[in-house]
Amino acid sequence: MTDYPTLDLNDDRQIPQLGFGTYKIDEGDAPEAVGTAIDVGYWLIDTAAVYDNEKGVGEGIGDWSDIFLQTKIWNESQGYERAKKAAQKCLDRLGREHVDMLLIHWPCPEKNLFVDTWKALIELREEGVAKSIGVSNFREEDLRRIIDETGVTPALNQIELHPSFQQRDLRKVHEELGIVTQSWSPLGQGDGLANETIKAIAEETGQPASAVVLRWHIQHGLCPIPKASSRDHMEANFKAISIELTDDQMDRIDKLDSKDGRIGPNPGDFN
């Protein structure tokens, strides 16, 4: 991993900065997709209980013990006891004794169980079931609450983040608290690649539009986890680690931010 960019986590571990996402990859296709991603060079694989593909992901990783593997506890498994049982089921499906990162998938504020769920994750980390623990889709108030009530700060918050929805306020909170920002839908589910600014920068650099967007994430210190179904797309995305954008190019992408850019659910309403 000499040339592979990494980020420091607040628990003295490191995370590869570019990952491979497996959302909407079927269980049957997961072994080949994950195996190909690893062959291309990805060192971080992201999955979740609700993706229904953990078994296939585990098979795809096979004997690669140093791949950074992360999964997520789904909403219906929130609560102290349920989260602990759910984590064990994740490990069973993955065929692993531990994961590198275990996340709470959504805060589900109406359930009001995320603090108890976080306490379960803290214990799972102490037991070695998860080497690092974090959250996904948490808002500032959710983050501050779990930190205030447990004294433990998540290593990472995985949130929707792409050029049309840049989450600057939340990123500032992450920076203040020492939390790594991981970007889901980092390409804006592909729509962002048709943007004229992105296309122009791709032409200027002679690189795929997807690599340009992912490089923007990397140069901002973010951790993008794009999904790709073909080897060609995986390789195009992976070029992000070997290119460099100018300050002007970064600035032009920064200007694409939109207050209406969210494409996924609002974490305050999603339960």
Q: How much β-strand is present in the residues?
A: 15-25%
Judged by helices, strands and strand pairing, the structural class is: alpha/beta
Strand order of the largest sheet: 3-4-5-6-7-8-9-10
Strand elements, count: 10
Measured as a percent range, the helix fraction is 25-40%
Spatial shape? globular
- Poorly predicted tracts of residues: none
Mean pLDDT: 97
| Rg over CA atoms | 18 Å
The description of the largest β-sheet is:
8 strands, parallel
Distance between the termini: 38 Å
Report on the architecture of this protein.
The chain is globular and about 55 Å long. The protein is of the alpha/beta class. The protein contains ten helices and ten strands. The mean pLDDT is 97. It has an eight-stranded parallel beta sheet with strand order 3-4-5-6-7-8-9-10. It has helices at 30-40, 54-61, 80-94, 114-126, 140-150, 168-177, 196-205, 209-219, 231-238, 247-254; strands spanning 6-8, 14-16, 20-21, 44-46, 68-73, 99-104, 130-136, 156-160, 180-184, 223-224.
Task: Please outline what is shown here.
This protein is an alpha/beta fold and 271 residues long. It is built from ten helices and ten strands. 39% of the residues lie in helices and 15% in strands.
Secondary-structure map with pairings?
Layout: E1 6-8, E2 14-16, E3 20-21, H1 30-40, E4 44-46, H2 54-61, E5 68-73, H3 80-94, E6 99-104, H4 114-126, E7 130-136, H5 140-150, E8 156-160, H6 168-177, E9 180-184, H7 196-205, H8 209-219, E10 223-224, H9 231-238, H10 247-254
Helix pairs in contact: 1-2, 1-9, 2-3, 3-4, 4-5, 7-8
